[in-house]
């Protein structure tokens, strides 16, 4: 009996020792991240049959040291962690983009304002060289604003790519760690009745938590306690004790749009950027959606400004009586046209293609992919997925409804070849002021139309197209001595004639002898006349419109077209200055300043939504963390109380031993 | 619910860092006085805010244009008023000259004075603005508009160009008046034709010759330069007028001719006062407009003839024409001054409109952009107190541990 008592005491002692050790371990690890508190499972030893029908208990033994761990609350915490990583990263990046865009956008708006201010002062005083020089330098400021915003965006893309690389390396590092830990767990018999390697399990969970910040993680534990880790949409990162590494591949066709690969000894597997989740997923979304869209919008605006002002220049004459030359880089230079098309590296054909812009107001910010299916070019809009059949190969030029033409420059495609089209690519980075001399600002209109004082009807004659101002002026003033247009109502239609004003005599209507042009049109419609008339190359067009009744054949409505060039003529400068108010972008609905503020507001609202989502994600994560900690966390007060308890148990057990010793001594002394 | 030690610290440090960054975030708004610094602060209103800022800078631009156009139009108005004064003086002198008691020397001295008036008007018509461009040359501001010839006539070298400046979103105002419409295109007092009296024994005057009916005015078949011959071919005591065109083709014959009563041919209506003699011949040349310089030159020439007129009655008729033309010129100049005045009125009304619009835009912009200081400062105080509370709670609670009592 005392032998049993002795043994019972010892068992109690050793159990209390293990309890104290575990409590000490818990206290020591109070600040260890990812540590789940451990507790000792004590079981009573089976009783021995004492012979008189009773079972006497024989002490206690330690069944197991387990960690207090709820896999469900842990998984919840892991899931919230990924979400938090995703929304927090996206929020920070969008915040930075918002600041950049708000300040750059305001600066761009200001330099546009100052440029247009200088155009207005040129229209007031067209011969002043100083004002013209100011306009040229303001134009340079617009260019430098665009280029610096473009550079900022490039810089952001580079740094995002750098961060993605860092994260991929980190994930690879974690993957190798996990494989090692899995190995260790396997070696230690992992998770069966012999006892769990709690600290290894904690370490593995800690690694998974770190991983979860960067990407969305799923785990499966097999019968041997070995964990398979899957990231993103289910791609395996760690298969038991085999680790795969996460690498980046240069994008195709745009090398800056890197994509992820899982690399093992057997080869590489691509993972989709879209399903990766976590901070990595946020980086991809930021780079591939927000940054790309913003860059596209900035490029498109640069293109619109260049085109509008260049076209305005082309309508007028400069101080040297020459046609207005381009102020900014032409939007359809060879470099720009070719830069808008990128070939996929898998292409086998020899096609070189380019994109020519025909109507800036229709250009979208979307990207397009053209695939040659063996017979036709299929163009897909990558934003909404719609596909248009452009037609068979070999036609040279293909018109689209988006304001650009797709041109085959040379070579031919093979079936399966793909091309990426970005209609506004490089417009901001290649934007330059190419005008050197301030005299080249085309402030003057070339020709003017004046109505005779004797006209009685409210109709009008206007210049609607000006293709070649110098030729127009030469035709009006050189080939002819002014043009005389007359029109009157006869037989229900307005009949018009155009004569060289020097013709003498000009016959009375309806004779058209010697007329340059003649015709008629019905009331309610208009007549458009080309000058010089076909088959010569058209230099300008006029339009007769409105009510041109006149007063019979002998007194028609008369209009004269004359040379209007003069160093004091600021008419074209006024027209150019008014383009600031005109809707140019988005089908003619947005002015330049409105476009800037729309882009800025878009970024701002994305940043705001990202902030709200991040706040929610933080709250959810805190909730999940608290729930997890409620189960697994160490509470020092609780451990202190436990320490007292187990200390007393130890003391009590040691007393049992001492009593058993005393009992033995008593029996010994009784028999002596 | 069980609270672990790690959770306690995590929670509290998260709280404190959240509160202190909340406090920090309010600083830029308080120091700039704006509620919306970047688009993120209020993406929905950011668009309107940008729109208001655009409108305000547009109005600034219009104000600059208004200043410029006001200066140009004021200069024009002043010039015209000076010319007007000169023309009135010329008229007075010319009226004085219609005194048969004046000698040739007196008339010559009046002619000299009118020559000075001509020089003055020429000088004003050739004036330049502050940038050195001629103000009455239309678009050819580097060319002098009116050049005096040797024979005292004046030719116009400018053009008809009119420049405009935008002073409102769809309102432009002219900033110059070209010399041709200001000084050259003065309506002929007689109408659309000028008479030359080849033979005028009867002393009649063409008082008016206009194209009354343009629809019937055929210049191709009956080219103008109409010669009116007064005859009495049918010998009935009543004069007839034989009208021939410039190609000596017959136009029509007016029978009977009644002095003072208008007769018409080919859409032209002519009224002749006085009784022409048989054999008188007048030629009507197309002349819709008479330049002011032509008028002044005609006055000078008339005065210099003095008493040596070949045909004194014709000389008196000429006097009548010249005086009425001087009148017409003076009222034309006054109308030009009126045009400048109308432009100035338009500019003024636009200016006050812009002031009003500016005010309301500023208000609208401020209502979106500006910070409500009372609210902001009190919420800053609140955040401060919250941070202090979090810090104090933490320091209280972290001291409580069972280990302190063991």
State the distance separating the first and last CA atoms of chain B: 25 Å
Let me know the average pLDDT of chain B: 89
Please give the count of helices of chain B.
Answer: 7
The helix fraction of chain B, in percent, is 40-55%
Largest interface: A-B, 77 and 63 residues
Continuous helix count of chain A: 10
Q: Taking strands numbered 1, 2, ... along the chain, how are they ordered across the largest sheet of chain B?
A: 6-13-8-9-10
Oligomer: heterodimer
Order of helices and strands of chain B: HHHEEEEHEEEEEEEEEEHHH
Largest sheet of chain B: 5 strands, antiparallel
Q: Which structural class fits the helix and strand makeup of chain B?
A: alpha+beta
Poorly predicted runs of chain B:
none
Question: What gyration radius of chain B follows from the Cα positions, in whole Å?
Answer: 41 Å
Radius of gyration of chain A: 42 Å
Largest sheet of chain A: 5 strands, antiparallel
Strand content of chain B: 15-25%
Secondary-structure class of chain A? alpha+beta
What is the percentage of strand-forming residues of chain A?
A: 15-25%
- Helicity range of the residues of chain A? 40-55%
Beta strand count of chain A: 27
Low-confidence stretches of chain A: none
Concise synopsis of the structure shown:
With 672 residues, chain A is of the alpha+beta class. Helix content of chain A is 44%, strand content 21%.
Q: Which key phrases capture this entry?
A:
heterodimer; A: 672 residues; alpha+beta; rod-shaped; B: 406 residues; 51% helix
Can you offer a commentary on this structure?
The complex is a heterodimer of chains A (672) and B (406). Chain A has 672 residues and is of the alpha+beta class. Chain A is 44% helix and 21% strand. Chain A has helices at residues 2-28, 71-124, 129-187, 198-214, 278-314, 334-339, 469-479, 571-578, 592-632, 636-671; strands at residues 38-44, 48-49, 55-56, 60-67, 217-221, 227-231, 235-239, 242-243, 245-249, 259-264, 267-271, 341-343, 352-357, 368-372, 376-381, 387-392, 397-399, 404-410, 418-421, 447-451, 460-466, 483-490, 493-500, 517-521, 527-531, 540-545, 557-563. In chain A, the strands form eight sheets. A five-stranded antiparallel beta sheet of chain A has the order 12-19-14-15-16. The mean pLDDT of chain A is 90. By secondary structure, chain B is of the alpha+beta class. Chain B has helices at 5-32, 43-96, 104-125, 179-184, 292-305, 312-369, 373-398; strands at 146-148, 154-156, 164-168, 171-174, 186-187, 193-199, 205-211, 226-231, 240-244, 250-254, 263-265, 268-273, 281-286, 289-290. In chain B, the strands form five sheets. Chain B has a five-stranded antiparallel beta sheet, with no helix packed on it. In chain B, strands 7-12-11 form a three-stranded antiparallel beta sheet, with no helix packed on it. Chain B is rod-shaped and about 155 Å long. Chains A and B meet through helix 2, helix 8, helix 9 and helix 10 of A and helix 1, helix 2 and strand 3 of B.
């Amino acid at each position: 009996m005392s032998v049993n008592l002795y043994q019972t005491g010892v068992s109690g002692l050793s159990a209390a020792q293990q309890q104290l050790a575990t409590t000490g371990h818990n206290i020591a690890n109070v600040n260890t991240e990812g540590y789940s508190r451990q507790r000792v499972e004590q079981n009573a030893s089976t009783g021995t049959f004492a012979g008189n029908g009773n079972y006497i208990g024989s002490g206690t033994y330690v069944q197991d040291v387990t960690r207090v761990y709820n896999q469900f609350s842990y998984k919840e915490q892991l899931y919230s962690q990924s979400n938090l990583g995703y929304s927090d990263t996206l929020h920070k990046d969008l915040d930075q983009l918002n600041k950049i865009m708000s300040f750059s956008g305001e600066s761009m708006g200001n330099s546009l304002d100052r440029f247009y201010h200088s155009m207005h002062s040129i229209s007031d005083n067209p011969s002043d060289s100083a004002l013209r020089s100011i306009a040229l330098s303001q134009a340079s400021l617009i260019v430098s604003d665009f280029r610096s915003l473009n550079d900022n965006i490039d810089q952001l893309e580079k740094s995002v790519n750098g961060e993605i690389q860092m994260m991929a390396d980190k994930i690879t590092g974690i993957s190798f760690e996990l494989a090692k830990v899995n190995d260790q767990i396997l070696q230690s018999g992992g998770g069966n009745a012999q006892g769990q390697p709690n600290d290894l399990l904690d370490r593995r969970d800690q690694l998974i938590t770190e991983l979860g910040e960067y990407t969305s993680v799923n785990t499966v534990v097999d019968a041997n306690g070995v964990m398979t880790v899957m990231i993103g949409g289910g791609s395996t990162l760690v298969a038991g004790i085999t680790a795969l590494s996460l690498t980046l591949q240069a994008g195709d066709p745009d090398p800056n749009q890197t994509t992820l690969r899982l690399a093992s000894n057997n080869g590489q597997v691509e993972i989709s950027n879209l399903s990766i989740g976590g901070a990595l997923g946020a980086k991809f979304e930021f780079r591939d959606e927000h940054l790309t869209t913003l860059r596209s919008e900035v490029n498109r605006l640069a293109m619109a400004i260049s085109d509008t002002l260049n076209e305005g220049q082309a309508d007028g004459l400069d101080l040297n009586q020459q046609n207005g030359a381009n102020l900014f880089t032409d939007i359809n230079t060879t470099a720009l046209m070719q830069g808008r098309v990128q070939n996929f590296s898998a292409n086998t054909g020899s096609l070189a293609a380019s994109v020519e812009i025909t109507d800036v107001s229709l250009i979208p910010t979307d990207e397009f992919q053209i695939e040659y299916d063996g017979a036709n070019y299929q163009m897909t809009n990558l934003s909404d997925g719609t596909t248009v059949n452009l037609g068979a190969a070999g036609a040279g030029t293909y018109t689209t409804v988006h304001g650009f033409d797709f041109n085959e420059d040379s070579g031919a495609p093979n079936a399966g070849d793909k091309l990426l089209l970005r209609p506004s690519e490089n417009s901001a980075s290649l934007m330059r002021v190419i005008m050197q001399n301030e005299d080249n600002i085309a402030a003057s209109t070339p020709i003017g139309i004046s109505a005779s004082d004797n006209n009685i009807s409210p109709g009008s004659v206007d210049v609607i197209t000006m293709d070649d101002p110098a030729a127009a002026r030469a035709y009006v003033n050189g080939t002819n001595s002014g043009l005389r247009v007359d029109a009157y109502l006869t037989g229900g239609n307005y009949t018009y004639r155009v004569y060289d004003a020097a013709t003498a005599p000009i016959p009375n209507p309806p004779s058209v002898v010697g007329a340059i042009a003649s015709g008629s049109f019905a009331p309610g419609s208009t007549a458009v006349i080309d000058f010089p008339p076909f088959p010569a190359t058209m230099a300008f067009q006029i339009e007769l419109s409105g009510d041109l009744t006149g007063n019979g054949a002998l007194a028609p409505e008369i209009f004269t077209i004359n040379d209007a060039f003069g160093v004091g003529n600021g008419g074209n400068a006024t027209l150019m200055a008014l383009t600031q108010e005109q809707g140019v972008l988005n089908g003619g609905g947005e002015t330049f300043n409105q476009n800037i503020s729309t882009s800025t507001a878009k970024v701002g609202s994305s940043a705001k939504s990202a902030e709200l989502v991040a706040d929610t994600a933080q709250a959810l994560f805190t909730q999940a963390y608290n729930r997890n900690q409620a189960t697994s966390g160490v509470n020092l007060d609780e451990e202190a109380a436990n320490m007292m308890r187990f200390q007393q148990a130890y003391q009590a057990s040691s007393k049992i031993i001492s009593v058993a010793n005393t009992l033995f001594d008593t029996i010994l002394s009784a028999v002596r | 619910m069980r609270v672990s030690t790690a959770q306690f610290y995590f929670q509290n440090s998260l709280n404190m860092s959240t509160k202190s960054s909340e406090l920090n975030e309010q600083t830029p708004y308080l120091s700039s006085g704006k509620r919306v610094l970047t688009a993120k602060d209020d993406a929905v209103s950011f668009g309107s805010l940008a729109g208001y800022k655009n409108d305000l800078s547009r109005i600034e631009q219009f104000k600059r244009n208004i200043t410029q156009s006001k200066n140009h139009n004021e200069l024009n108005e002043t010039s015209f008023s000076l010319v007007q004064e000169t023309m009135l003086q010329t008229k007075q002198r010319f009226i004085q000259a219609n005194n048969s008691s004046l000698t040739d020397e007196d008339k010559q001295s009046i002619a000299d004075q009118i020559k000075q008036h001509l020089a003055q008007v020429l000088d004003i018509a050739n004036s330049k603005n502050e940038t050195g461009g001629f103000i009455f040359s239309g678009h050819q501001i580097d060319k002098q508009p009116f050049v005096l010839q040797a024979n005292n006539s004046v030719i116009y070298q400018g053009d008809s160009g009119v420049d405009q400046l935008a002073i409102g979103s769809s309102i432009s105002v002219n900033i110059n008046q070209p010399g041709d419409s200001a000084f050259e295109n003065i309506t002929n007092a007689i109408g659309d034709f000028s008479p030359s009296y080849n033979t005028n024994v009867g002393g009649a005057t063409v008082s008016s010759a206009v194209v009354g009916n343009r629809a019937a005015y055929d210049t191709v078949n009956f080219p103008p330069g109409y010669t009116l011959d007064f005859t009495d071919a049918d010998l009935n005591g009543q004069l007839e007028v034989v009208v021939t065109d410039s190609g000596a083709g017959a136009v029509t014959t007016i029978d009977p001719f009644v002095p003072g009563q208008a007769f018409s041919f080919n859409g032209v209506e002519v009224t002749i006062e006085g009784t022409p003699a048989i054999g008188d011949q007048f030629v009507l040349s197309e002349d819709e407009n008479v330049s002011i310089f032509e008028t002044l030159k005609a006055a000078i020439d008339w005065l210099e003839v003095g008493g040596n007129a070949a045909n004194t009655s014709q000389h008196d008729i000429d006097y009548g024409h010249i005086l009425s033309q001087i009148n017409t010129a003076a009222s034309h100049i006054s109308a030009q001054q009126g045009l400048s005045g109308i432009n100035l009125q338009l500019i003024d009304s636009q200016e006050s409109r812009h002031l009003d619009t500016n005010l309301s835009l500023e208000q609208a912009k401020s209502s979106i952009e500006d910070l409500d200081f009372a609210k902001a400062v009190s919420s800053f105080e609140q955040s401060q107190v919250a941070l202090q509370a979090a810090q104090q709670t933490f320091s209280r609670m972290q001291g409580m541990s069972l280990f302190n009592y063991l």
